[in-house]
# Entry
Amino acid sequence: MSWAEWVQGRNDKARAKARWRELKELDALGLRGKLPDGAVVVAFATNDYLGLSAHPRVIEAAHEALDRWGAGAGASRLITGSRPVHHELEERLAAWKSSASALVFPSGYVANLGVLEALAGPGVTLCCDMLNHASIIDGCRLASALGARVVHYPHADPSAADAALGSAPGRSVLVTDSVFSMDGDAAPISELAEICARHGALFVVDEAHAVLGPNFSELPCEVLRVGTLSKTLGSQGGFVASSRGMIDMLVNRCRSFIFTTALAPPSAAAALAALDVLLSGEGASLLRQLATYAQRLRPGPAITSPIIPFVVGSEQEALDASMSLLQMGALVPAVRPPAVPPGTSRLRVTVSAAHTQDEIELLAAALARLGLHGG
# Structure
């Protein structure tokens, strides 16, 4: 079989299963924009949870950095790519996360890959929640190739994680998302931290989607916190916050940090400005607004995130529901395998503080017309 035949076969298989994907162009600043056919839509699938990507202070900071340092860093951080704004951002991120130090990466994905690769080796056990983000799963695969033992425990199951760590023969790591990207539920952070403390395990927590919590400053175990600059902060990039020794080790050992061009200075400056907004009174108001919107679409006693899944079942059903919403002016792409298990294709709605109350009500009415209920 030639490569062309193999590629065609893969493409045909994806189409036959209603798993074919195409890039959708959206000419937008923030949540509202136009499709190529001129249709005006509102995005309800963005991770720009507080709308800070289009905040005037954030845009202004990026402009100033562009004028001062240019569009890119030009090299890796260890060559000539480290700018004052990177160091200032790392100091502020460390303080925000109550950590001794922090390190900025070009994306959250490569931060997870690099951290798990750097921690891996013979005699190391990685315990990984089965529903962790793809970047964590891929990091564990890389760790396995480097000799680490990888154990996947049932989703958000502390007793299973406890048993997995209890059978680990050497150094061990427990890695979990704090909020899971496809279901919007939160990990039992306190319980998992107690388990890590009991077994002497390092606790790696990816807080990419933790805009509404769970929040923590002190845990009874050694913690490495992975975060992103592209969701709550509306910019681009990732970071790790931990002890000074851990960050120094990553600077010297983490391949996805050492061998890649540094985060673009305008992105770093935008994230720094966004952090200022987040930690201000305005940021507190935006968080309250976000929680209110999420509560409207997912009523319940506790709101853990602005991610509201509407599970419809088959791939084609999800595509049909997505198209129906698009015709009503709401952009909500269908999420299908392999992003979610077969039979659980869904509309993954995410709300933003930058939505208006009218937009939230219109979406709620549109979902109700389709008979969809979040959960």
User: Anything to note?
Assistant: The mean pLDDT is 96. The chain has two domains: 23-49+306-369, 56-278. The two ends are 45 Å apart (CA to CA).
